[in-house]
């Protein structure tokens, strides 16, 4: 097996966070020969067009444009094929991937880790997953809820931003010049409540030294996955009956589990009057008027969303279920006679929140 010597850096961050500006600055530094993969959801790759205007430096790197899809799902195979092609060029010293603003970094990293494990002779390895964070937006919309009417209609936006923050090993805090030192410290503290281990790099206009990104420890999928406040709560608090777990930042977390379904109307009312002390909530729920579908419930700051996902296995046909049980008998270990695999399991994270009070309000919604 050949030595894996070409680092891959995945750049994530929501639309407008400064990913393309960061890449423009990296391309100007002329420290290493890098290849760049740019993923944009549109039919015309705007980010690649901007990067092409960076100057002569772009002519010295290989840039691959991937559009009409996302590299974490519809373009996954094409993405891995481009990685393999680029890695064959012995002159390339690093490959940067600018992901679409709506990409899920855990899916991209997972696809890459699978590729590494299945391809013994590859020269590439996943070095870092970088989340570019617009600190001004985090301050306004997550910490202080000063969200515009247009943006308030889409609670999924801030939840996606939270997902990108939770799954990374480097956070680039961009646009720090838009906040005072006190406001920036509030942002740091808030982010640490969600992601305690990732290194924070502060900058203005995406101005970060290339070597600062590359000269650090290698990416560890399981370790990074365990960084997030949601995963820590699931790992540490699942069997905590009396109190919520509290970390050194004063952030408490607990897991709520209940087999019985929520009343949809009562739960929606709870969401409308959501406790301000809760800064992040994420988990799977189900409603008494829909025994078929898994619902994803997410909240960040004032934004909350409920999204219909897949079907509970209990809702499958008898023939389908028998086949799955034959192939995966372990699924019956946590099977309920009445509800099957249906389960409300939600992680709650907040500061100054009373677990007993929140649990009571949840049980008021249970049928």
Provide the fold topology.
Blueprint: E1 6-12, H1 19-28, E2 34-40, H2 46-52, E3 62-67, H3 76-87, E4 94-98, H4 105-118, E5 124-134, H5 135-143, H6 149-152, H7 156-166, E6 170-174, H8 181-194, E7 199-202, H9 210-214, H10 221-227, H11 229-237, E8 245-246, E9 251-258, H12 264-272, E10 278-287, E11 290-300, E12 303-311, H13 318-327, E13 344-351, H14 355-363
Parallel strand pairs: 1-4, 1-5, 2-3, 2-4, 5-6, 6-7
Antiparallel strand pairs: 8-9, 9-13, 10-11, 10-13, 11-12
Helix pairs in contact: 5-8
Could you walk me through the main structural features you see in this protein, from its secondary elements to its overall organization?
This protein has 367 residues and is of the alpha/beta class. It has two domains: 222 residues, Rossmann fold; 134 residues, Hypothetical Protein Yjia, Chain: A,domain 2 (2-Layer Sandwich), CATH 3.30.1220. The protein is 35% helix and 25% strand. The protein is built from 14 helices and 13 strands. The strands form two sheets. It has a seven-stranded parallel β-sheet, sandwiched between helices. The chain has a six-stranded antiparallel β-sheet with strand order 8-9-13-10-11-12. β11 and β12 form a beta hairpin. The longest helix is centred in the first third of the chain and has 14 residues. The protein is globular and about 65 Å long. The N and C termini lie far apart (58 Å).
Q: How much helical structure, as a percent, in the residues? A: 25-40%
SS field, number of helical segments:
14
Distance between the termini: 58 Å
Strand order across the largest sheet: 3-2-4-1-5-6-7
- Secondary-structure-derived class: alpha/beta
Biggest sheet record = 7 strands, parallel
CATH superfamily assignment of the largest domain? Answer: P-loop containing nucleotide triphosphate hydrolases
Strand content: 25-35%
CATH class category label of the largest domain: Alpha Beta
CATH topology name of the largest domain, in short, is Rossmann fold
Return the average pLDDT rounded to an integer: 77
Compute the CA-based radius of gyration.
22 Å
According to DSSP, the number of beta strands is 13
Order of helices and strands: EHEHEHEHEHHHEHEHHHEEHEEEHEH
